[in-house]
Design brief:
Blueprint: E1 11-14, E2 17-20, H1 21-26, H2 39-44, H3 51-62, H4 72-80, H5 87-91, H6 98-109, H7 116-127, H8 129-145, H9 147-154, H10 163-171, H11 177-188, E3 197-200, H12 203-207, H13 210-219, E4 225-227, H14 235-240, H15 243-260, E5 268-270, H16 273-280, H17 282-285, H18 290-300, E6 303-305, H19 315-319, E7 324-327, H20 337-350, H21 369-373, H22 375-390, E8 395-398, H23 401-414, E9 419-422
Helix pairs in contact: 3-6, 4-6, 7-8, 11-13, 15-18, 22-23
Length: 433
């Protein structure tokens, strides 16, 4: 990915297809539709912290009407106050990819939004997955022994670089040993030589909520599945890393898919809406490399999300229908057709008990927005809880695994009558994997 933002090879997906950053920014008509949908603007009430304000600052930088060294602190606050929730994209009549514009500004500023220790930890997932797994187990041991509670009581976790530990302890569920054993058994199985489908489990499915992986594999019953354990997609590096590591991870995944699809092109299934939408944008990453871009286009056409598979209602839904809603929050990109398929599934399974509402939701992208923004993000998430309570919902199904973890933790604390779960929980779990 070119580092020069004015380069014709630096492309973003605009309403009319791929376009240069300059062209995409200029497409904005400044109509103000996005401003009231921007959570950071609603908190600060300043134009600079709105989607429109950020877009205009980027335009002025590209036109060299302002310089990076002019008020750099304000530029950093503007760039890093965006939580990449993509609500502005949904509100925009032209569907401008403002979050992509913001990421371009962040790379130009050369600053990191995540705490250093968290940045290093999540980066291990893409570079040294075994070491990352050891760090996760260490965190689980500290939670079980009560060490995290002691550190919180002593105030250690209030330090700026360690607040994310407190938040992780808050949102992550207790380890379910039964499902951990199932995953361990699955990991020991050899990958079939002639797979029918490939599965790329998300970070949360492997380490936070193993039931997501187990139920996703149930959806593929009767098919030979090759699982890509500990395979980074490049999404984290796109959001918080650098171009070199991003391209390395993207090429690794693309090459691995091509090797598995040597005989026939296989679909690549993922349980993460963020990863799914990001993989669909892979060709843009290789816009400066025509050969790789052609391969990426072929790859993107074979990406599947769980809503592309057949769902059967769980017994609990048949016995006790509950009022439910759908959360379509994602990172950078609106869910689009994926959200429509999810709505159709929920309407079929719940009928009149499915409530169609677009409540204010703030997605938690790879690595966690709340890990970086602390109190502000917690205020935003609390608004989600208020919306669920006002509508007296009992269940919220999320297309994002991280959004489900975040919202469910807040519901347990403030409105325990409801729960948030990943979409894959709709699948009945009375069958063995």
């Amino acid at each position: 990915m070119p580092k020069d933002l004015s380069s014709p090879h630096f492309l973003v997906m605009g309403p009319q297809g791929p376009r240069t950053l300059q062209n995409s920014v200029d497409y904005c008509t400044r109509c103000n539709a996005c401003v009231q949908s921007c959570p950071s603007y609603l908190l600060k009430r300043e134009e600079t912290f709105s989607a429109r304000g950020r877009n205009q600052i980027i335009r002025l930088l590209l036109e060299q009407k302002i310089k990076l060294n002019q008020n750099p602190s304000l530029l950093q606050q503007t760039a890093f106050s965006c939580i990449l929730c993509a609500r502005c994209v949904r509100a925009c009549a032209g569907a401008l990819p403002v979050p992509d514009h913001v990421l371009a500004l962040r790379r130009t500023l050369g600053k990191n939004s995540l705490p250093f220790l968290l940045q290093m930890l999540v980066r291990l997932y893409g570079t040294h997955p075994t070491l990352f797994a050891c760090m996760v187990r260490l965190f689980q041991i500290l939670r079980k022994s009560g060490a995290i509670h002691i550190l919180r009581w002593l105030g250690v976790l209030q330090m700026p670089g360690l607040r994310w530990v407190k938040h992780a302890d808050y949102i992550l569920p207790s380890t379910n040993k039964a499902f951990q054993k199932q995953l361990k058994k699955l990991k020991t199985l050899p990958e079939p030589d002639r797979a029918d489908i490939l599965y790329l489990p998300s970070l949360e499915a492997q380490y936070a909520d193993p039931q997501i992986a187990c139920r996703t594999l149930q959806l593929t019953a009767g098919k030979q599945v090759a699982v890509f354990w500990n395979q980074a997609s490049g999404l984290f590096e796109y959001l918080y890393g650098n171009e070199t590591r991003l391209m390395t991870q993207a090429k690794n995944l693309l090459t691995r898919w091509e090797k598995k699809s040597a005989r026939r092109k296989l679909p690549l299934l993922t349980d993460s809406l963020e990863v799914y939408l990001f993989l669909k944008q892979y060709p843009l990453l290789f816009s400066a490399l025509p050969g790789w871009q052609k391969r990426a286009q072929n790859f993107a056409s074979h990406i599947k999300y769980i809503t592309d598979l057949s769902f059967r209602p769980a017994a609990a839904h048949e016995e006790e229908p509950l009022t439910c809603a759908l959360d379509t929050s994602s990172v950078l990109y609106p869910a689009g057709a994926t959200a429509e398929r999810a709505r159709k599934i929920l309407k079929t399974l719940f009928g009149k008990n499915f409530v169609e509402c677009e409540y204010s939701r703030f997605s938690i992208p790879a690595g966690g927005v709340a890990f970086a923004y602390g109190t502000s993000a917690e205020e935003m998430i609390l608004e989600n809880v208020k919306d669920v309570a006002r509508r007296q919902l009992r269940q919220v199904f999320c297309l994002s695994g991280w959004a489900a973890l975040e919202l469910d933790a807040a519901l347990r604390r403030h409105y325990p009558q409801a729960q948030a779960r990943h979409m894959v929980y709709l699948f009945r779990d009375d069958e063995r994997i």
